[in-house]
Design a protein that fits this description.
The chain folds into 2 domains: about 180 residues, Glutaredoxin; about 45 residues. The chain is built from 6 helices and 9 strands. A 5-stranded mixed sheet has the order 5-4-3-8-9, sandwiched between helices. It has a two-stranded antiparallel sheet with strand order 1-2. Helix 5 packs antiparallel against helix 6.
Length: about 230
């Protein structure tokens, strides 16, 4: 109990420094600390166990969160179900708890997901991802951003999806690109920012057409310059 109280105090103190800074600080290409150890179903679970075979979806939150976390969780699960990809085969899904109180609770299971607990390793992981959060002592809740990240099988951050509603085609393409070890191009990243709605968390349906047009123009330009140099 003392360790739990101390953990919450430290989180509360850090939160006082600025809950206004609760957000995703995007760090594409960041290498995750695969050596940190969580617990799953009460057993040790080193992070590297979930990497190496397929891209990984990571959602951070906490189990007792009934508002933002639940809404985000439903949005993430719903969009993944519409990608045409299968959890455990095409990607691995992780829910990582930032709450030390979840460490002593009963094992948590979610179909197709691995639920990891451990506030200390979660803080290390969150820092590397750019997931800024804090504990509000007055409410007993955590303030944190909504969304998830797609990570390559090697453990590098590939794509961020903020909000609670997501475009299935954009998520599918991010997972396929991560599986192939490809990072989004500069053009793709710019378009994702331009077409992203921070309120809904969704990408404008025009983004996919825009990406395809941009790619076609890029290839056409390459072909033209190659022809001119002959």
């Amino acid at each position: 109990m003392k360790a739990l109280a101390l953990s919450l105090f430290v989180l509360s103190f850090s939160a006082q420094a600025g809950l206004r800074d609760v957000e995703f600080i995007e760090q594409p290409g960041a290498e995750l600390p695969l050596n940190v150890e969580f617990r799953e179903d009460g057993r040790p679970a080193p992070l590297h166990r979930y990497f190496g075979r397929s891209p990984v979806v990571i959602e951070l939150g906490y189990l007792s969160c009934l508002h933002l976390c639940s809404t985000t969780r439903m949005g993430v699960m719903e969009v993944l179900s519409r990608t045409g990809l299968e959890a455990g085969r095409d990607y691995t899904a992780l829910f990582v708890s930032i709450d030390p109180r979840d460490e002593s609770g009963p094992p948590q299971r979610r179909e197709g997901w691995h639920v990891l607990t451990g506030a200390t390793p979660a803080a290390v992981l969150a820092g590397r991802i750019g997931f800024r959060y804090g504990y509000e002592a007055a409410s007993g809740e955590f303030a944190h951003p909504a969304g998830f990240v797609v990570v390559t099988p090697e453990g590098r951050v590939a794509q961020y999806f903020g909000g609670v509603r997501f475009d299935a085609q954009a998520v599918r393409e991010a997972l396929v690109a991560a599986a192939n070890g490809r990072k989004p191009s500069v053009i793709e990243r710019v378009l994702l920012v331009c077409f992203h709605d921070p309120v809904s968390g969704r990408y404008n349906s025009a983004i996919l057409d825009a990406l395809r047009v941009a790619a076609a123009l890029f290839l056409a330009a390459l072909a033209f310059f190659a022809w001119r140099r002959r």
